[in-house]
Design goal:
The chain is globular and about 45 Å long. It is built from six helices and four strands. It is α+β, with helices and mostly antiparallel strands. Bound molecules: flavin mononucleotide (FMN). Flavin mononucleotide (FMN) binds near residues 14, 63, 65 and 118.
Length: about 170
């Protein structure tokens, strides 16, 4: 897919086909995550790719709106250092936001759908993922082939009007 098509075709996919993602495609998606820019290039992140069905089902229990993780072909846990420092946390979160979009666009390029999930039960996520005490799971990104319809550019996305959000020269 062209970049512009991938940007327009990406949407949250919350129902996935049973078929797995080819290993090479998952590798490419993870490589896109690794190539993401980060503040001062610190790359403070780590990614846990989960593909075992039973572990995916367990992982779906970390948040009330994470049910789609259970049926995904793979879910990538975005892990950051545990920190009480507000500035540090903001930076880690910003970096992981960019990682999320890298993953989602690389997936869309391959015709693979993706869906965010927050993490409510940090202790459960830590246990399933085997994280050490100095790491926390900030987000989950589920990926898999869409069960509803293939990804295709969306003509009229559910977004505020361009004139409502874009200001030229000043607010
Ligand atoms: C920070 C963030 C957290 C989100 N958390 C969840 C979530 O926990 N569960 C979920 O199903 N979707 C989640 N979403 C997906 C949004 O609901 C979705 O991106 C938004 O409604 C726009 O829809 P689209 O992605 O299909 O364009 C999250 C999105 C973002 C950016």
């Amino acid at each position: 897919m062209e970049t512009w098509d991938a940007i327009r075709a990406r949407r949250n996919v919350r129902a996935y086909e049973e078929r797995p993602i080819p290993a090479g495609d998952l590798d490419r998606i993870l490589e896109a995550a690794r190539r993401t820019p980060s503040s001062m290039n610190q790359q403070a992140w780590g990614f846990v790719a989960v593909t075992e069905r039973e572990r995916l089902r367990e992982l779906a229990g970390v948040w009330r709106y994470a049910a789609h993780v259970a049926t995904s072909a793979a879910t990538i846990a975005l892990v950051m250092p545990a920190s009480d420092d507000r500035d540090e946390r903001e930076t880690f979160q910003y970096d992981l936001g960019q990682v999320t979009m890298s993953i989602m666009l690389a997936a869309a390029d391959l015709g693979i759908g993706s869906g965010h999930a927050a993490v409510g039960d940090q202790a459960l996520a830590r246990r399933i993922l085997g994280l050490p005490d100095d790491r926390e799971c900030a987000w989950l990104v589920a990926v898999g082939y869409p069960a509803d319809r293939p990804l295709a550019p969306i003509a009229r996305p559910d977004r505020r009007a361009i004139e409502d959000v874009v200001h030229l020269e000043d607010w």
